[in-house]
Amino acid sequence: MIDKIKESIAEAEAFEAHTKEEIEAFRIKYLGKKGVLNAYFAEFKNVPNEQKKAFGQVINQLKTTAEEKVNTLKEVLESKEEVKGIYGDLSRPGEPIAIGARHPISLVKNQIIDIFSRIGFNVSEGPEIEDDWHNFTALNLPEYHPARDMQDTFFIQTDPDILLRTHTSSVQVRYMENNQPPIRTISPGRVYRNEAISSRSHCFFHQVEGLYIDKDVSFADLKQTLQYFTTEMFGKSKIRLRPSYFPFTEPSAEVDVYWGLETEIDHRITKGTGWLEIMGCGMVDPNVLENCGIDSKIYSGFAFGMGIDRIAMLLHQIGDIRLLSENDVRFLEQFKSAL
Ligand code: PHE
């Protein structure tokens, strides 16, 4: 019997383990309730008295050997884990770093800025929360002017003077108040209108305002600038100007660019005509110049305001305007390759 226990001790000493599970199995095998050690203890009563001392000694030896083995194996394993924790597995392949993508609205906005900066326009900005003067009154839309209804406005409930700007034309006013001609500026930004949300329109969208004020600026200058822009932007130069009305420009026009009808999305966004309405424009009304402190007898100019969202939808073939504001990474990731 004593020899058998000695064998167990040798076996326990020789044991090696590489995982927590192996160590635990070892502990249960030797030190568990139904383990080797308890089995030997159960034999104790059958051992003749004169051998009891020697028997007890070897059993105790087995116990300490098994316990020490468990402890040292655990320590070795833990220290290995620590080393791994700091340096990781140095032979593992590198983790790919996820690259972000620019939002299609930013892509198109940057393109527009780039095209106009080449002909001397700078970039200006104004607040999205505006007052009545900059959004309406200075733009020839006094209180009770019916054209205020052209744009359903979000007002701040407690103060009817404060609103979310309905167009970037408010930035024109701010720019003219603070700068004298010659003025050549474009103002990109978000605008808000209280409209039903659908696949074609949203209660907020994006515009780029353009303003050119100098001596002897004519409608021909406006038309030529638009021609330059559409050719650079779309690679297409077929545009049409439809007479229109804006209180702050006279004469006024709406500009369409011929896009074509190649895809289903082209059909949807151009309502089956192939023509995309990209902006409103006109010669700045002398009243507006005067409201902003510019002498309308010396200076004249043109202004335009274009929507970015629909242009982005056509250029990137996006079928639903709501995708632009849902922040779905599966959508956004698709613009990784664009600059
Ligand atoms: N502000 C007009 C709109 O949002 C567009 C526009 C800008 C028209 C400048 C003429 C001149 O519809």
Describe, in plain words, how this protein is organized in 3D.
- With 339 residues, the protein is α+β, with helices and mostly antiparallel strands.
- The chain has two domains: 2-87; 104-335, 2-Layer Sandwich (BirA Bifunctional Protein, domain 2).
- The protein has helices at 2-14, 20-31, 36-43, 49-87, 104-117, 132-135, 169-178, 219-234, 264-269, 286-291, 309-315, 329-332; strands at 122-123, 129-131, 155-156, 159-164, 183-192, 204-214, 239-246, 249-258, 275-284, 300-307.
- The strands form two sheets. The chain has a seven-stranded mixed sheet, with helices on both faces. The protein has a three-stranded antiparallel sheet with strand order 2-4-3.
- Helix 1 (2-14) runs parallel beside helix 4 (49-87), helix 2 (20-31) packs antiparallel against helix 4 and helix 5 (104-117) crosses helix 11.
- 30% of the residues are buried.
- It binds phenylalanine (PHE).
- The site of phenylalanine has 11 residues, from strand 8, strand 9 and strand 10.
- Residues 167, 169, 246, 249, 252, 280-282, 303-305 line the site of phenylalanine (PHE).
